[in-house]
């Protein structure tokens, strides 16, 4: 690692190269926009680091960050590292019990608290005796210290240089099942993924990014924070869900990462203004089609995007094709918290329908006898914090990471995922079914926003579906019959592509909207199968006995 700069060194180099260049752009209440240069970010981080050092905590102490994305999230992270400590980011929408669980498990010595929607609900989870520092954008509550207290300190004068294998952060998984685990990553892990990612996409100091997915998640941490250190790119922040489209248009990002549901939301927003049929017709017109595509992208604030990436969950092929027709290549990526999200990526111009893409630079891949995808690279975690047994289960003796995903490779190394090993269920007929590929086919429908295929112990699988906002309006109008006919046609089409034991008994249209707040989704918008099955499980047998192909559940 001596030939490559570690994250702090990369930041220092960028700061020295263009101290006055704008770096972080933060929306403020009232419509103002705060612009912080590289030098200003460095100065604030050094002052905060001086204050942290004055506490005389043990070297490598664990310091938590609880905040939605904002400029001072990144500045706090820098300060923690400059002071010789380890950052422990938490999702900004956890329950008080979850906050306590993570902070106690991590042994946090201090908590930075920033931009949050419901701090009163989270605050009781802070264990007694752990001081809290309020960042500039913070809840209107009393804190032990304020950011202004930290900024009253003189900036440190040294250039801290932690060792490559030193622990940099503990990232707690969002937990689709079970208790979140603390993934330990070193500075070397971050460097390996960030430097090679830059080589893959050629990101430079002229690029712009919008930070809106949780920075506590490894994907945003790598794609926004780490990439900005190494490339010198400018980072815009989103203010809120309500202002997101305005934030996106202001940033006009040149590189963009999103989970499938975000890209699907964009699509549904377009369909709310123009019908899918009319847009399809317009895009087919020889001369007008490309112009319409560009206008749609401009309306979304995506017209300047050079690279658009999508990951964290399966991406419907129809969604990829839809963006391609607009003139935007949406490239799939694949990775895990345990390997910094750095594993596979689809290269531009090399898309293969149904396949993610090839391994990233310097990533080794093998398919185990069980069909599990296993990968090895310099981004592989050090292990799970305080859990050597789970670490040994996840990292093989020869250093390969067990992903838990079933998959296959073609002759040139493209990867296709065929399901999660632990999510595969067995029907009452003794047949195994992988739900993810079926869900992917159903989610391609413009009127289905979320889907979860269930069937453990049932004769045939069922698909629980949440309709889009447009579809819910249709269902309450005279168009309900047309909507039902469309969904039944989808069911028939999907079943025709499945083996007999996989075919769906029917679609169940639930009235609930699965969200983070009600516990149905993880903070990265993945469905929590266990929660969904627990919420509707008492009805499964009844729905099976009815033998209806389309059921409405309120």
Kindly list the characteristics that best describe this protein.
4 domains, 554 residues, 27 strands, alpha/beta, Luciferase, domain 3, 19 helices, 5-stranded mixed sheet, 5-stranded parallel sheet, Rossmann fold
Tell me about this structure.
The chain has 554 residues and is of the alpha/beta class. 35% of the residues lie in helices and 21% in strands. The chain has 4 domains: 7-231, Rossmann fold (3-Layer(aba) Sandwich), CATH 3.40.50.980; 258-303 and 305-334, no CATH class; 350-419, Luciferase, domain 3; 425-553, GMP Synthetase, Chain A, domain 3. It has a 5-stranded parallel sheet with strand order 4-3-5-6-7, sandwiched between helices. Strands 12-13-14-15-16 form a 5-stranded mixed sheet. The chain has a 4-stranded mixed sheet with strand order 2-1-11-10, with helices on both faces. A hairpin with a 7-residue loop joins strand 24 and strand 25 (462-467). The longest helix has 17 residues, at 38-54. The N and C termini lie far apart (57 Å). The model has no long low-confidence stretch (mean pLDDT 93).
């Amino acid at each position: 690692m001596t030939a490559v700069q570690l994250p702090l060194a990369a930041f220092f180099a960028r700061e020295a190269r263009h101290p006055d260049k704008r770096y972080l752009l933060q929306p403020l209440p009232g419509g103002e926009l705060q612009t912080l240069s590289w030098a200003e970010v460095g100065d604030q981080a050094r002052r905060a680091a001086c204050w942290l050092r004055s506490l005389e905590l043990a070297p490598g102490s664990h310091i938590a960050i609880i905040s939605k994305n904002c400029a001072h999230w990144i500045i706090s992270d820098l300060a923690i590292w400059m002071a010789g400590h380890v950052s422990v980011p938490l999702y900004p929408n956890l329950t008080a019990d979850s906050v306590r669980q993570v902070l106690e498990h991590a042994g946090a010595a201090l908590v930075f608290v920033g931009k949050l929607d419901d701090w009163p609900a989270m605050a009781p989870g802070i264990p007694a005796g752990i001081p809290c520092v309020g960042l500039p954008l913070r809840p209107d509550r009393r804190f032990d210290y304020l950011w202004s207290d930290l900024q009253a300190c003189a900036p440190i004068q040294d250039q801290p240089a932690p060792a490559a294998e030193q622990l940099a952060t503990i990232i707690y998984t969002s937990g689709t099942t079970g208790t979140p685990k603390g993934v330990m990553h070193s500075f070397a892990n971050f460097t390996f993924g960030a430097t090679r990612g830059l080589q893959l996409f050629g990101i430079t100091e002229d690029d712009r990014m919008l930070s809106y997915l949780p920075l506590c998640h490894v994907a945003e941490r790598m794609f926004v924070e780490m990439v900005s250190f190494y490339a010198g790119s400018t980072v815009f922040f989103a203010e809120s869900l309500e202002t997101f489209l305005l934030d996106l248009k202001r940033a006009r990002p040149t590189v963009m990462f999103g989970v499938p549901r975000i890209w699907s939301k964009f699509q549904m927003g377009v369909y709310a203004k123009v019908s899918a049929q009319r847009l399809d017709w317009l895009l087919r017109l020889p001369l007008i089609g490309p112009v319409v595509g560009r206008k749609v992208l401009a309306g979304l604030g995506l017209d300047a995007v050079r690279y658009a990436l999508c990951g964290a969950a399966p991406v419907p092929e129809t969604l990829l094709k839809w963006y391609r027709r607009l003139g935007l290549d949406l490239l799939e990526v694949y990775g895990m918290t345990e390997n910094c999200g750095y594993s596979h990526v689809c290269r531009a111009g090399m898309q293969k329908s149904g396949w993610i893409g090839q391994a990233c630079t310097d990533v080794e891949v093998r398919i185990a006898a069980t069909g599990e995808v296993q990968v090895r690279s310099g981004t592989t975690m050090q292990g799970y914090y305080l859990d050597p047994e789970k670490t040994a289960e996840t990292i093989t003796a020869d250093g390969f990471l067990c992903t838990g995903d079933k998959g296959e490779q073609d002759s040139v190394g493209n990867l296709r995922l065929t399901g999660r090993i632990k999510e595969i269920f067995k029907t009452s007929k003794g047949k195994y079914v992988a739900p993810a590929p079926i869900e992917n086919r159903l989610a391609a429908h413009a009127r289905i926003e979320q889907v979860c295929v269930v069937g453990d112990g049932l004769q045939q699988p069922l698909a629980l579906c949440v309709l889009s906002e447009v579809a819910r309006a249709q269902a309450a109008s005279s168009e309900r019959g047309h909507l039902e006919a469309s969904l039944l046609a989808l069911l028939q089409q999907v079943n025709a592509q499945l083996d007999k034991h996989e075919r769906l008994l029917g679609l169940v249209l639930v009235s609930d909207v699965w969200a983070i707040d009600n516990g149905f989704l993880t903070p990265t918008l993945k469905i929590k199968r266990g929660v969904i099955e627990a919420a509707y499980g008492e009805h499964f047998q009844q729905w099976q006995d009815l033998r209806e192909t389309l059921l409405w559940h309120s």
